[in-house]
């Protein structure tokens, strides 16, 4: 009952979480749709207002040109009117001065003015004549001014000029309001989140497309270059021999854990007879059973001279197993049912190139360490093109416990044979080792085959490889990338 309730709660929780996600997505979509519609409306309004602005601006400029023309036509009439006003004003000033002067003479000469024959009386009469003439002239000027005023008031140019000035003022006000409206709409468009997002996307979109095209086509061009240029060059290079050929062939390397010496020589479990003179260095994951009286200690590194290689290959914290009597030890892959084991014996004088990653353990004399030599091929173009710059060589007398995914295949050297590069585990030093381009480009491009296959040939010697190398293509993208870099580093150091 409890499990049923828990299952119901978990089911309902999942559905509620799904409902919340759907609701959030719908709300987000609705908001984005509303913002986008508002943005489109604002952009359309800005475009419409800008078009109206262009029309009004053109109309405003036409009004200014027309007003300038009417102003030039009316300026003539206004100038003539100003001349008449000036003349009338001058006459008035002269007339007032004469009147003031006569009045002053009249007031100052109260006695002489009564004598009709006096000079004062004569002067007063002259002033009266001048005043009468100016008064008559003033009346005529005022009549002319009135005529000009009526003419100006009735002139169509003047009325049109006033009307155009009023229209220009109204047009200017409308343009001012329209500019403010355009500025507000433009500010809304600029500050819109959707518009800013759209502009940001458009700014980086060309670079993103360029990067995308690079991601698509650069690997294609790189693989084309590697397959059709680099690989044929590598295939034509002379093979690598770790040791120079000698007239005396080295002692043969044999398989001590199997009756057959070629083909599928491994098995899921091995029974090992360990003599008192020898000791077993074994990875803990492959020690299945041993007797109680056997002595078990820890060996930190397979070889203290190559600690990095031992650590990278997982050959650290090894079990050292010794016994004062013949010890029967059972070996098997405790954590990987697909791995099989085989024991390869190296007699004294024998040498074997072996990748430490395929080693599960070593059987050796107690008083002797495992002899491993490092051989760099830094001046060999073949090594640089394949990125395998170092080879680790195991020297006899010892026995190597080799592990292989789905089994280990051993073949004797002869005519040239090709093996998938990631499957190769090791080969004797009297074998000619080289790389040969895989047969089809499509299989290489799709990642189904490596660029190179390992090629072995020679009159003597042997080589061995995994039956089915472990497939790591299902790993995550980041893990696959990191793993690829790590595998390249291990390949450089021959691990």
Short description:
By secondary structure, the protein is α+β, with helices and mostly antiparallel strands. The protein folds into 2 domains: 181 residues, Helix Hairpins, CATH 1.10.287; 256 residues, Mitochondrial biogenesis AIM24 (Double-stranded beta-helix, 4-Layer Sandwich). It contains 8 helices and 20 strands.
Chain-wise SSE layout:
Elements: H1 2-108, H2 119-154, H3 156-191, H4 193-235, E1 254-255, E2 263-264, E3 269-274, E4 278-282, E5 287-289, E6 295-301, H5 307-312, E7 316-322, E8 327-332, E9 339-346, E10 351-354, E11 359-365, E12 372-376, H6 381-386, E13 390-395, E14 398-405, E15 408-412, E16 417-420, E17 424-428, E18 432-437, H7 441-445, E19 452-457, E20 462-466, H8 477-492
Antiparallel strand pairs: 1-9, 2-15, 3-8, 4-7, 4-11, 5-8, 6-7, 9-14, 10-13, 10-17, 11-14, 12-13, 15-20, 16-19, 17-20, 18-19
Helix pairs in contact: 1-2, 1-3
Series of H and E elements: HHHHEEEEEEHEEEEEEHEEEEEEHEEH
Number of strands: 20
Q: Termini distance? A: 56 Å
Beta fraction: 15-25%
Give the overall form.
Answer: rod-shaped
Put simply, the count of helices is: 8
Class from helix and strand fractions: alpha+beta
Report Rg.
56 Å
**Do you know the CATH topology of the largest domain?**
Double-stranded beta-helix
User: What can be said about the biggest beta sheet?
Assistant: 7 strands, antiparallel
What is the topology, as strand order, of the major beta sheet? Answer: 1-9-14-11-4-7-6
Number of domains: 2
Mean pLDDT: 81
């Amino acid at each position: 009952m409890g499990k049923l309730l828990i299952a119901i709660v978990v089911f309902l929780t999942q559905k509620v979480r799904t409902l919340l996600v759907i609701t959030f997505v719908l709300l987000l979509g609705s908001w984005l749709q509303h913002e986008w519609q508002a943005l489109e409306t604002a952009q359309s309004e800005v475009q419409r207002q800008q078009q109206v602005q262009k029309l009004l601006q053109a109309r405003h400029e036409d009004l200014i040109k027309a007003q300038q023309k009417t102003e030039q036509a009316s300026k003539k009439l206004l100038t003539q009117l100003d001349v008449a006003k000036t003349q009338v004003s001058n006459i008035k000033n002269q007339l007032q001065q004469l009147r003031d002067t006569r009045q002053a003479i009249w007031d100052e000469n109260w006695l002489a003015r009564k004598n009709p024959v006096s000079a004062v009386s004569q002067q007063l009469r002259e002033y009266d004549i001048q005043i009468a003439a100016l008064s008559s002239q003033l009346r005529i000027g005022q009549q002319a001014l009135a005529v000009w005023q009526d003419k100006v008031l009735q002139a169509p140019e003047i009325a049109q000029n006033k009307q155009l000035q009023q229209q220009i003022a109204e047009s200017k006000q409308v343009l001012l309001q329209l500019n403010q409206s355009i500025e507000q709409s433009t500010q809304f468009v600029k500050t819109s989140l959707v518009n800013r997002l759209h502009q940001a996307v458009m700014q980086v979109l060309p670079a993103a497309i360029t990067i995308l095209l690079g991601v698509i086509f650069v690997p294609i061009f790189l693989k084309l270059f590697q397959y059709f240029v680099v690989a044929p060059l590598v295939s034509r290079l002379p093979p690598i021999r770790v040791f120079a050929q000698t007239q005396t062939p080295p002692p043969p390397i044999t398989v001590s854990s199997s009756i057959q010496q070629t083909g599928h020589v491994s098995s899921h479990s091995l029974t090992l007879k360990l003599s008192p003179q020898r000791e077993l260095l074994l990875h803990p994951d492959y020690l299945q059973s041993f007797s109680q009286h056997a002595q078990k200690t820890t060996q930190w590194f397979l070889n203290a001279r190559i600690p990095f290689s031992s650590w990278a290959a997982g050959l650290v914290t090894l079990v050292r197993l010794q016994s004062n009597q013949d010890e029967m030890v059972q070996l098997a892959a405790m954590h990987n049912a697909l791995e099989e084991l085989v024991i390869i014996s190296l007699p004294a004088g024998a040498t074997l190139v072996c990748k430490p990653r395929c080693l599960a353990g070593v059987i050796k004399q107690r008083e002797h360490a495992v002899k491993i030599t490092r051989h760099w091929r830094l001046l060999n173009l073949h090594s640089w093109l394949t990125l395998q710059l170092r080879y680790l060589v195991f020297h006899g007398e010892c026995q190597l416990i080799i592990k292989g995914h789905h089994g280990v295949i051993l073949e004797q050297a002869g005519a040239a044979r090709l093996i998938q590069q990631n499957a190769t585990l090791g080969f004797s030093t009297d074998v000619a080792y080289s790389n040969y381009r895989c047969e089809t480009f499509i299989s290489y491009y799709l990642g189904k085959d490596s660029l190179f296959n390992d090629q072995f040939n020679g009159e003597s010697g042997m080589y061995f490889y995994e039956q089915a190398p472990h497939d790591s293509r299902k790993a995550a993208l980041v893990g696959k990338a990191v793993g690829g870099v790590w595998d390249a580093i291990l390949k450089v150091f021959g691990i």
